[in-house]
UniProtKB/TrEMBL annotation:
Cleaved signal peptide residues: none
InterPro entries per the UniProt record, alphabetical: Gfo/Idh/MocA-like_OxRdtase_N, GFO_IDH_MocA-like_dom, NAD(P)-bd_dom_sf
Record Pfam families: GFO_IDH_MocA, GFO_IDH_MocA_C3
Residue ranges annotated for the GFO/IDH/MocA-like oxidoreductase domain, each copy included: 132-258
Name of protein: Gfo/Idh/MocA family oxidoreductase
Record key words, sorted: Oxidoreductase
Gene3D superfamilies, alphabetized: Dihydrodipicolinate Reductase, domain 2, NAD(P)-binding Rossmann-like Domain
Length: 340
């Protein structure tokens, strides 16, 4: 096809990132948008020059000119929306997670597998981040030997904590391990090439004790044992005072490497009366800007070449299964074996 026409469902932070990226790419048209707020839809449609806007997803995917959809709606809607799009013959890019329930995800994977002519792409953007890609290449080349330990941090800026508390009181996120940790879990699986066998998780709400009432966390940690003997540590939080903090450390038998040990915004260093200051990334759109562009380009390339991406629906299921096991471990205060 000469121009791929995409409809974006959901215009929250991630939906807008994808919509804006698609709107400036060659060989693709941001053809439609869908969001519950009609006034906001009109505003975005005018700003990004979008032909159609809808308040109902089912109406958008009826558009006969549409080639693909990008789903960035609340996680609980993903499985149904993926299935409906495939039934309409549309290629699907879906943000993580595929869903909140493993039985729903397994059913959706069956639907995906029955539509081999349609491309399904899942939004694990760290796989497309230049730093993570380079680290993966070093690991695969044997530069640090066999991996023994991997540590992954994902901590949101504290400026967003109040907003999350309000959100959590209205709508369940699935818990910090599913809402945030699936990216860390996927990166661990991807880099090590191994599945997680058992987990032990805990957490606290010292900065936001009101989250206890809705069974949410502002800080969660998990220790994971992988099938190949690697030990992984995951730290998830919502209270980084300096900005958006994502990093990983991989220790091997011949060396070690770190990814973004300091989440630097750029290469500028400020020297003044406060000492030496390095600006840091303040949010995930800033830190993973290139990765979001890269994953969408890969989706489009897969459509044009009629191939499936490296990241699969099964990766989404495995990440969800590990995250659910972490939540179970937290609630039971015990080690939990991951069920696949």
């Amino acid at each position: 096809m000469d121009t791929i026409k995409i409809g974006v469902a959901g215009l929250g932070r991630l939906g807008l990132i994808h919509a804006e990226n698609i709107s400036v790419m060659k060989g693709v048209e941001l053809f439609a948008i869908c969001n519950l707020d009609a006034d906001f839809n009109r505003e975005i449609a005018e700003r990004l020059d979008v032909r159609y806007n809808y308040t109902e997803y089912e109406e958008m995917i009826k558009n006969p000119e549409l080639d693909a959809v990008c789903i960035a709606t609340p996680s609980g809607l993903h499985t149904k929306q993926i299935e409906l799009a495939l039934e309409k013959g549309l290629h699907v890019f879906c943000e993580k997670p595929i869903g909140l329930d493993t039985a729903d995800i397994e059913r959706t994977i069956e639907k995906i597998d029955s539509h081999k002519d349609m491309v399904f792409h899942l939004g694990f953007m760290r796989r497309y981040d230049p730093d993570y890609l380079y680290a993966k290449q070093l690991v695969d080349a044997g530069e640090i030997g066999d991996i023994s330990i991997i540590r992954s941090y994902g901590i949101d800026p504290i400026s967003g904590l109040e907003g999350f508390v309000k959100f959590a009181k209205k709508s369940p996120s699935g818990g910090i391990f599913l809402d945030m940790g699936v990216h860390d879990i996927d990166a661990i699986r991807w880099i090590t090439g191994s599945e997680v066998s058992k987990v032990w998780a805990n957490g606290s709400n010292k900065a936001a004790p009101e989250l206890d009432e809705v069974n949410e966390l502002e800080l969660g940690t998990a220790t994971m044992q992988l099938e190949n003997g690697v030990t992984a540590f995951v730290v998830l939080g919502r209270t980084a005072s300096h900005g958006y903090h994502v990093e990983a450390e991989i220790i091997g038998t011949k060396g070690m490497l770190r990814i973004a040990a300091t989440p630097e915004k750029n290469k500028v260093t400020l020297f003044n009366e406060h000492g030496v200051v390095r600006p840091t990334s303040q949010n995930f759109p800033e830190r993973f800007k290139e990765a979001y562009i890269g994953e969408m380009r890969d989706f489009l390339d897969c459509i044009r070449q009629n191939i499936q991406p490296e990241v699969t629906a099964l990766d989404g299921l495995r990440g969800t299964q590990v995250a659910i096991a972490c939540q179970e471990s937290l609630e039971k205060d015990s080690v939990v074996e991951v069920t696949y």
